[in-house]
Automatic annotation (TrEMBL):
It comes from the Eukaryota. PANTHER family: KUNITZ FAMILY TRYPSIN AND PROTEASE INHIBITOR PROTEIN, KUNITZ TRYPSIN INHIBITOR 2. The keyword Aminoacyl-tRNA synthetase does not apply. SUPFAM superfamilies: STI-like. SMART domains: STI. The lineage of its organism: Eukaryota, Viridiplantae, Streptophyta, Embryophyta, Tracheophyta. GO terms for cellular component: extracellular region. Pfam families: Kunitz_legume. Gene3D superfamilies: 2.80.10.50. This is Kunitz type trypsin inhibitor / Alpha-fucosidase. It comes from Medicago truncatula. Keywords: Disulfide bond, Protease inhibitor, Secreted, Serine protease inhibitor.
Length: 224
């Protein structure tokens, strides 16, 4: 009888804890982020984002000009294309060379190439005053005159229920563990859809590592 009573108490306590967890919490936090070949994503790697087809978007991630900008600083996802887009690399803030990259932990995200009109290719969140959306971009305050840039951290989390190695991007304001938003696709007639906070559905991706090699003419090529 005591065993049954203890079991009931344990079950009720577990139910209370799991129903009162912060929205940003995930049981998958703290796991290695795996690429499409089932290897851990690492700071030295360059990765193409391949849509998982579970979301509302199908296309590559690249940079484009939006609004009055003369520099391509807005992160866009082009509709229905087989191209791989601009590869990304990931690192741990404060330990960019050796930090291990886990789900639910802060991560710096940056393109391996950038236009000359920006100092940094790291992802950030800016508030577009025209469309009233918080959008993913690169660069710095000088690239977004009159716009607010949100302070916070990016996370990567698993997405797609029981499907392994499909991930989504999350942004937490001011490093909070509860004030977090999924990043998803938003289409407004541009050359692709923007990646924004609080989208109706998070964009789901696989990470495919790109490998560089030299051809017979000594030109560096990249292949996924």
């Amino acid at each position: 009888m005591k065993f049954i009573y203890s079991l009931i108490i344990s079950f009720l306590l577990f139910a209370f804890i799991t129903t009162n967890l912060p929205l940003a919490f995930s049981y998958d936090d703290g796991r290695y982020i795996m690429d499409s070949d089932m290897w851990p994503v690492h700071p030295d790697g360059h990765y193409a984002l391949i849509p998982s087809f579970m979301g509302i978007n199908i296309g590559r991630v690249y940079l484009g000009k939006t609004g009055d900008s003369t520099c391509p600083v807005t992160v866009l996802e082009q509709d229905f294309t087989s191209e791989r887009g601009i590869p990304l690399k990931f690192s741990v803030p404060g330990d960019p060379y050796y930090g291990e990259i886990f789900t639910g932990k802060p991560v710096d995200i940056e393109f391996v190439r950038k236009p000359d009109c920006v100092e940094s290719s790291k992802w950030l969140i800016f508030v577009d005053n025209v469309i009233q959306k918080s959008c993913v971009g690169i660069g710095g305050p000088e690239n977004y005159p009159g716009m607010q840039i949100l302070n916070g951290t990016f996370l990567i989390r698993r997405n797609g229920g029981g499907v392994r190695y499909i991930y989504k991007f999350v942004f937490c304001v001011n490093g909070s563990t509860t004030n977090c938003s999924d990043i998803g696709y938003y289409k407004i007639g541009e050359m692709g859809g923007r990646l924004i906070l609080n989208a109706k559905q998070a964009s789901s991706f696989l990470f495919v590592e790109n490998y560089s090699y030299k051809d017979k003419d000594g030109i560096i090529k990249s292949v996924a």
